[in-house]
Amino acid sequence: MNFEAIKSIYFFEMARTRRTLLQSVVSPVISTSLYFIVFGAAVGSRIQEIDGVSYGAFITPGLIMLTLLTQCIGNGSFGIYFPKFTGTIYELLSSPVSMTEIVLGYVGAAATKGMMIGIIILGTASLFVDLSIAHPLVMLLFFVLTAVTFSLFGFIIGIWAKDFEQLNLIPMLVIPPLVFLGGSFYSVNMLPPFWQAVSHFNPVLYLISGFRWSFFEIADVNPVISLVIIVGFLAVLMGLLTWIFKTGYRLRN
Amino acid sequence: MAPIVSVSNLVKTYASGFQALKGVSLDIEEGEILALLGPNGAGKTTLISIICGIVNPTGGTVLVGGHDVVKDFRATRSIIGLVPQELTTDQFETVWNTVSFSRGLHGRKPDPAHIEKVLKDLSLYDKKDNMLRELSGGMKRRVLIAKALSHEPRVLFLDEPTAGVDVNLRKDMWQVVEKLRETGVTIILTTHYIEEAEEIADRVGVINGGKILLIEDKKDLMKKLGRKELRVDLQEPISTIPETLSGYELTIEDDGHSLIYDYDTSGERTGITTLLTALAEAGIRLKDISTRQSSLEDIFVELVGARA
Question: Which of B105, B131, B150 to substitute to test the interface with A, most A CBs within 10 Å?
Fold first, then answer.
């Protein structure tokens, strides 16, 4: 294992986060605050509570997930796409690093950055609502698993993308609808039966539901199923990544 | 001694069907400077890219330091430094960080003293805190060299290092190469410029259409270069060379209308004066005299042209 290389990639990526602090940290904080103002104040005045939890608190896990997913995919994909775009990828490919080490460096940094922002959002949320976490360890497990899985998903998107449009396609067009329709701002039980059934095809529903369970012990689906789904998705991504490494897909033509 | 780089029957066919390398074999000795000449699209960059691990080969093997570049990539890539053709840099990084990053990628522990030395050798030290986007093209080229030297490689690939570089920087670059050679680093450079190969290389290889057309010691090539040809056009054709001229290496051409005399410009005497006197004494009347020198460029154009 080339630990020096993993360390180098990781800190190189984290240095970029420092350079773009405003965009990386301040902007998600502002957008989350806006969600609290718009949803918490406007919608929350009409929906007092869901399953015994105040509306403001109810939406917090979903908001953290929304940020975590978009940040991790964004960081993961940009981290590997940028060297491809500028051409500096030559150095990675000609270094004595295995693809596993490259992934550990990039995905590790992307997940770290995503989690840092997730924690900041959690802190911001606690300024607006009273929060209690019923199962902190389960919460941490969902938090870390989601960050790693979606950073890896981002990494694969970054390898696949041939231009900036493709790079942004999934984070901009696929993830937001999945998060919004995945019960971030409501319980799926509030939907008509047909849409409830449709919602169960949305993988993000399981993430948000499981994550919310760790806070309030209320869930749309069994948290164990949530865990199985996310681990399953991680396994699929690892399989895909193994294929990419074997074939050199879009990296070593 | 086993060659430091050994390429055998290397083939590369891209997904588009384009065959960039058609069975290249080549041995590179430790400590030498090899110049690879060839026109655009000859296969130079593909060859280097496979040796360095950027491109997967379709067939054949490459050994570096006795290790296979695919199976044992850690061992081979640890001793290789690559300076790519394109000026690809992290625009928003500082010189110091980007060079240190390269060292880390190669699995070497941080060594600020070494990085400092590399930057000083390349006259980059006073720019160490500058962002790369603030540097000129020539400076960026130096940064790429510094990155390639950050992990103390034994083999250095320079892919068209002087393309688009001004005369001064080119001279500086050759000094750097010379210094590296003194430390025993093997250097492989690709270039379009024949003078460049003449100036610096120990051996010269010509590659075109995915094949090595020639690989020879520069000294031997220079010997060929040093030879000149004197052409004497005659007023009356001759069928045989007169007895009195048998001491000269003459050949008859153009149905006896011309005599060709090869001579060595580096020799003390070319023999031209005595030959001309002897021709006059033999009663041969001259129409015209011309000389021409075969240059590396001729060899190159001939080789490349013949296969084009």
Answer: B105
State the complex-level ipTM: 0.83
Give the phi and the psi of residue A19 in degrees, each rounded to 5. -65, -30
* Rg, Å, chain A Cα set: 19
Give the H/E segment covering residue B173: helix B167-182
- Distances in Å between the Cα of A236 and the Cα atoms of A148, A152, A243, B144, B253 are 13, 11, 11, 38, 76
Q: Give contacts of A12 with chain B, Cβ < 8 Å.
A: 93, 97, 101
Rounded Cα–Cα distance for residues A230 and B1 (Å): 56
Give the pLDDT confidence of B187-238 residue by residue, as tens digits. Answer: 999 887 777 787 789 999 988 889 998 898 888 877 766 677 889 999 988 8
The answer to whether residues B156 and B187 touch, using CB atoms and an 8 Å cutoff, is yes
What's chain A's average pLDDT?
A: 88
Entry pTM: 0.81
Please, what is the angle between helix A55-86 and helix A99-128, to 10°? 150
Task: Delineate the domains of chain B, giving CATH numbers in brackets.
Answer: 5-222 (3.40.50.300), 228-293 (3.30.70.100)
A25 backbone φψ class: left, alpha, beta (φ>0; ψ -120 to 50): alpha
Confidence band, pLDDT 50/70/90 cuts, at residue B26:
very high
